[in-house]
Amino acid sequence: MVRALRKILHVDDNPDILTVSKLALERVGGYEVCVASSGKEAIGVAAQFLPDLILLDVLMPEMDGCATLVELRATSETARIPVIFLSASVMPEKVTEYKRLGALDVIAKPFDPLKLPEQVSLLWNANADALEQP
Fold it and tell me: Which of 12, 25, 100, 115 is the most buried (most CB within 10 A)?
């Protein structure tokens, strides 16, 4: 049985997206949500907040989502935290690249905030086997 998803860190450089998604994930999904507005901020926040899952925007200035994921994997406290990318680029070759980097999956942007909690839950449960490995 897959462990319960309770805490989510959402990383996006767009403050409007963070506000709306945090509200939806908390109120509709019942999750505890922390937000970060950059990859660099996310690395520090993730080590402190220790989320069950990170929702990570791909296109961000300075440190994009892919570079952020590489850094998260290089730090012992955050190396095993599952990541789902949020991206407007969901062509199969891009999704394959994101998964090769270690992402569970990709949620397409723009997304419907009210459907986001269900999408996250479905992807979490669909990846139960990967989440249970030591």
Answer: 12
Q: Is 84 domain-assigned?
A: yes
Q: How many domains does the chain have?
A: 1
Confirm if 116 and 127 have CB atoms less than 8 A apart: no
Tell me the per-residue pLDDT of 1-54, one tens digit each, with 9 for 90 and over.
Answer: 567 899 999 999 999 999 999 999 999 999 999 999 999 999 999 999 999 999
Residue type, 4: A
User: Radius of gyration of the chain from Cα atoms?
Assistant: 13
Q: Is the pTM of this model over 0.90?
A: yes
Of the chain, the end-to-end C-alpha distance in Å amounts to 14
Cα gap 130→124, rounded to integer Å: 10
- Residue 132, domain member (yes or no): no
Asked whether residue 2 is domain-assigned, the answer is: no
Token couple for 101: 């980097």
Structure tokens at 96: 């394959």
* Residue length of the chain: 134
CATH value at residue 105 = 3.40.50.2300
Give the residue numbers spanning the domain of 86.
Answer: 7-127
